[in-house]
Amino acid sequence: MLALLRRKARSPLIQAAVVIIILVFIFWLPQMGGDGGPGTVALVNDEPISSREFQRRYDDLLTQYRDQLGGVIPPELLEALGLKQQVVNQLIQEKLLLQSARKTGLPATGAEVQRAIQEMGEFSENGVFSLDIYRQILTGARLSVAEFEEGIRVDLLRRKIIDHLVGFAQVSEAEVRERFQREHDRVRLNYVRLAAADFLAGLSLDEEELAAHYEANRERYRREPRLALDYLLFSPERDGSGIGEEEIAAYYEANRERFDFPEQRRARHILIRSAENAPAEEREAQRRQMEEVLTLARQGADFVELALLYSEDASAADGGDLGYFRRGEMLEPIEEAAFALNPGEISGIIESRFGFHILQLDEVQPARQVSLTEARAEIVDRLLREQGRQDSFVRAGEIYELILTEGSLQRGAEAAGVSLSSTGLFARSQPPAQLARYPEVVQAAFNLEEGELSSIVAAGDSYAVLYVREKEAPRVPPLEEVRERVEADLRQVRAREAARRTAEEMLAALHEGDDLATVAAAHGQTVRESGWFARATMAAADLPSAVAEAGLALSPGRPLPDRVESAAESYYVISLAGSQPGDEALFERWAGPLRQDLLRDKQEALIDTWINHLVHQADIRLTPGAI
What we know:
The protein is an alpha+beta fold. Strands 6, 13, 14, 15 and 16 form a five-stranded antiparallel β-sheet that branches. It starts with a helix and ends in a 5-residue tail after the last strand.
C-alpha cells in the first residue's frame, strides 16, 4: 500500500501530504482485512490481524535493520532476531490497546477527528484548511474520506489510551533525590588486589591430581579436526610494465566519482532531551533551559565545558563532538543548521525527535576533486591488482588442466614446472603461517575429504589448487600428549583458589576488627587507594565495574562488603575510606532531567504492565503457518 501511495503521488501537493497518509496507514491498517481465514495472521478477541498488515510491518522492520547493518542481514542473524514474532507481538499489543480504549469509554468524536485533520498543514492553503485540497490529496491516493477519517479516529483512540495510562505515573521529590544520590554520591576506597598470577610460584602438583583434572575436563582438550595439504598457490606478479598512461587516464575518467570528495563539516552539539509527545509545559521548560545554555554559549562560555555540564547526549564526554560528516549523514534539522553556519558560529535552538540542540561549527573541509596526478598511484595499484588477478586465474586454469590430465597434483605441478607446497597436520583455528592470510583456502580445505582434489579456489587476489593428503577426525588425545597444557591449566586453577582463599581470610580478619594495612602487611600485600568516584563517574575509580559497584554499596555504617569481588583473575578486598554526598549545584542542574527519566520509566512500566495484563486476559489465536 505504501508503495502504491508513492506511485500515485503525481503532484507536488500530493507528494507533500503522502507522509500524513502513510502515518495514518501505519496505525490504521491493522483494522483492515481478515476475517479469521487465509488472509489473517491472528485473531485477538475475535478481531483479525490481516496478513497484509503483517507483511507491511515486517517489511518496514526488515528495512530498518538492513539500513542499520549496511544493507545486508546474515540469515543466521535474521533467524536469531525473530523479526516475524516481533511483528506479530507488536500488532497484537496494538490491537489490545485499541480494544482497551473502546472498553474504557474514551471517545474519539467526529469533532476531534475533524480538528486533527484541519490541524494538518498539508491540507491548508495560506494557513486555512482547504476542503478541495483535502479531497484532491485523498483522491490522488485512492482513499475515501470515510476511510481516511476512520484511520484518524483509530490513531486518536490509541493516543488517548496511552495518555490515559501514563497520566497515572507520578514522581516525588524524594524519588528524584534518591536517584540523584544513587548516581552522584561519591566514595573513595582502600583496597588490596590479589592476582592469581602472583600465587603461581611455589605450586607443586602431584600425578594423581593431574590425572584427576584431566579426566574431569577431557572435553576441554578435545582436538579439532586436522588435515595435511599439498597445494599450489598462484599469486599476482605486479611489475607495472603493462600499465600505460592512456589506461590510467581512461580509468580516472570512467571512475571520476571515486575521486570526488564532497564537503565535510565538523561540529559540536549540546542536547537537552525532550520526547515529542511530552506535555506542552514540560517541552516549554526544556526549551527555556536550552535558551539559558544558548545565552551562555553566545556570551563566550567554552562550548566544550557547556557540553560536559549540560548535554544529555553520549557525545557530552567528548565535549559534544559529532566528528566529520557529509550531507545525508546527519539528522536533517542538525544537517541543515550545520551547513548554514561558518566556522566558530553557534546555531539557534534546533528541534529534532530527540529534543533540543544547539550547534557550534568547528571546521569545514571543502569539496574537492582529486586530480589525476594525485590519484595516479592508487589507480596504478588498482589496475595492477586487477591485471594480476586475471593473470593468476589464467595461469591457475592452465595448470589445473595439466593436473587433471596427469592424474595427480604432484605430476601436474612437475609438468608445469612449478613447485608444490605441503603442510603438516593443522587445525582450522591454527593454520600454518603460509596459509593464515588465506582463510578461503583453509575453509575450502576442510570441506574436502582425504584424498580429494579441489577445484580452483579464489583467495583474495590469488588462486589455489588443493589436495588433502591426510585428514584426522576430532579426538581427545591421551594425557601424555597434552600434559603441558593440563599442567598449566591446573596450576592456574590452584593459583586462583589460593588468591581467593587469601582474600577471604583477609576480609574475615577485617570483619573481626583488624586494620586493612595490618592485614595486608601480614600477607605481604600492599594497600592501594582509589580516587573519588560516583556511579556516574565509575571510570575515574580505575577499578573493575563489579568492584566499583561493591564499593558504591558501602557506607559509614557498613564500611566493609560481605564478600570478596573478583575480576580478570584477581580478587579484591575493599574497605570504605570516605564518602561524600553529591554536589547540591549538580543536583539543581540534573533534577529536571532525572525527574523526566524517572517519569518516562514509570510511564513505560505502566504501559508494559497494562499490556501484559491485557495479553493474559485476551483470547489470542494465531493462524497456523501464517508467518
